[in-house]
Amino acid sequence: MSALDHLTVLDFSHLLAGPLATQMLGDLGADIIKIERVGEGDLYRRLPPFFNARINGESPHFLAWNRNKRSLAMDLKTPEARAIVLAMAAKADIVVENFRPGVMERLGLGYADLAAVNPALIYCSSSGYGASGPMAGRPGQDLLLQGISGFMSVTGSKDGRPTPLGISLADQLCSYHIVYAVLAALIHRMKSGRGQHIEVDMLRACLAHQGQELLFAMTLGKSFERPASGIAHSGMPAPFGVYQTSDGWMTISMNPVERLAELLDLPELAACDAQRLWDERDAVHALIEARTLTGPTAHWVERLLGAGLWAGEINSLQDVATLDQAEHLRAFTSYEHPSAGTVRTVNIPVDLSETPGEIRRPAPRIGEHSREILAGFGFAEDEIDAWIADGIIGDLQSSATEKAA
User: Fold this and answer.
1) Which range marks the domain in which residue 56 is found?
2) Which of 77, 158, 323, 348 has CB 3.0 to 4.6 Å from 357, enough for a Cys bridge?
3) Which residues pair with 312 in a beta bridge?
4) 3-class SS string, 115-135
5) 171 flagged as catalytic
6) Of 142, 171, 201, 395, which is the active-site residue?
7) In the chain, how many domains are there?
């Protein structure tokens, strides 16, 4: 038994923010029916992947965010497909979509359309900037949101460019907002029997995770200024930051300055009061880094941790893949994919003692489960065959036959 195995989700989302959210629901047992375009599928199947590499023809982008799903390929612009979706929505629990505002409504598949056949339906719309307002029509892509939301203005060094994060954080913050809003709506439905329309956007997700920075800026009317050195946060004094060692890099976090100065044998650091640690933070950083450069990362981290101070290594992704603590937590796993073969991936990141999640399905191929899904919703085999013949429904087996011919 899984926590969400009684739920059916119609997933119209693509790229990252929506698919990660539905993957999380699928990891906990929900039946995720990924509705994709006939022949093309999710755009992430076709975008240039990392290093322009593929895994036996499969996109790493798509494999990362689409396990535990079944694929139904469908031409949503046809009246037949709309009728099929309405019939499925009558039996489903949740809909997730992240088209630009108004697209689902133009297809006749907006919240009002689907709620008319299922008032208990929970319908989540996700967008870049919300459904209305002066920016609603803009493209909602992660890099753009990192800039617009202020992330980049406080990341990087004073004399350098504003620095985007090394991961698609804006997308993924939105994913988590989708999940917690959907789960809250499910609890409400358990009490009331009613569904509702949820709206989540990347902009507010990004703003919500800058709570302390924005409170400071709005309440005190002061702007953050990026440091010129490796100080790690625009609002923090020395020694909080990133330091080079003789063989790599390390972090030093918030520590009693007197104890840190004693361990590093830096009497000049011990003489710094709180104001100087802020006013001269770049100079203090240089003072500390001159000392950390005299030894390897492992030496300094061991010494600082041994003294009860806060410090850590800076690992590469390859280092992280073999991290002892990650292995202890079973943070990584693998699954078998019919095309890609063995896919090593991040495991489900939460433990539920009574209803643990599991990877039950690899990321699907386009239309791999079209027949299975439609038959499960009660559609007749001859109807399904006719829809496939007319191109309304895409089917993996039929597509493979056509390619072979």
Assistant:
1) 8-208+362-404
2) 348
3) 251
4) HHHCCCCEEEEEECCCCCCCC
5) yes
6) 171
7) 1
